[in-house]
Description:
With 297 residues, the protein is of the alpha/beta class. The protein has a domain at 143-207. The chain is built from 9 helices and 12 strands. A hairpin with a 2-residue loop joins strand 1 and strand 2 (57-67). Helix 3 crosses helix 4 (163-176) and helix 5 (192-204) runs parallel beside helix 6 (222-238). It is globular and about 50 Å long. The N and C termini lie far apart (45 Å). Adenosine-5'-triphosphate binds at residues 54, 59, 79-85.
Amino acid sequence: MTVKTDVDALTPSHSAFAVENPMKRDDPASVLEPQAGVPGEAPMVRFVGVTKRYGALTVLDELDLDIGRNEKVAIIGPSGSGKSTLLRVLMTLDPLTGGMIEVDGEPLTHMRKNDELVPASPKHLRRVRSKIGMVFQSFNLFPHMTALANTIEAPMQVLGLSRKEATERARDLLSLVGLEDKCNHYPSQLSGGQQQRVAIARALAMRPKVMLFDEVTSALDPELCGEVLNVIRRLGSEHNLTMLMVTHQMGFAREFADRVCFFSQGKIIEQGPPQQFFSAPQHERTQQFLRAVKEAV
Ligand SMILES: Nc1ncnc2c1ncn2[C@@H]1O[C@H](COP(=O)(O)OP(=O)(O)OP(=O)(O)O)[C@@H](O)[C@H]1O
Ligand SMILES: [Mg+2]
């Protein structure tokens, strides 16, 4: 694996939430696995002719989309246009009807066998999928486990980390999201924003290269929403992570994303850098959508 060059960017002094934490390890760069894009390398995520149907309904329609390494992509569009489905098929929560997905230069939904691509085995799926983390609108924490227990569970069960290693990693990440003092709280003892930040730490504990966020602030009131967006903003600016974010918050998409993709009926009908996308949308459907969003504010 190539090594990220701006390791210094991971020092906690850059962190809005950084506080002295005796549990923190000396090497903050190891909180997240370093990675970097090298010119000419394959995109981090590649959708090739991806189709998803539920019965007669085509939700993703022969979609081609490349996401670069460390690229931050905002996915916007009307309800029912296929945004969550896009993230769900990438997370392998739903099988594809057609096409294929590659992650980090290797097939995700397929594997090579005797020079042929065949549908991926469960083992192959698990291995490649471990490069991806996902955070949902409804935090999906285990209610009977503390923030710390929620965060160590998968690294121990799936990655085989010892309890000590997983706990060190979890404390670092809970600190990264500003919750070093809430490690022993249960979800019911945390605010919505705090629960969502635990969910982010839990996803990061698997050291993904790609993070998917599906309307992660929609269930939160504006103040708590700000806390979560700050964490995402910092993850984006201080760590090498590829991010796909479905959002209805146009302000955040504009400021955070490198590219905005507008979905309509399972297709990307317009995409571009936020500045250009929001100030001069070309497609009539995009203009109509942005007008409606503006009027709703
Ligand atoms: N498991 C399923 N079975 C049948 N239809 C489904 C299933 N999941 C999603 N759909 C349908 O697929 C379409 C796209 O759904 P999706 O959740 O991707 O939309 P979305 O763009 O995320 O919308 P929203 O902005 O409301 O979250 C919808 O018409 C939905 O009803
Ligand atoms: Mg959705």
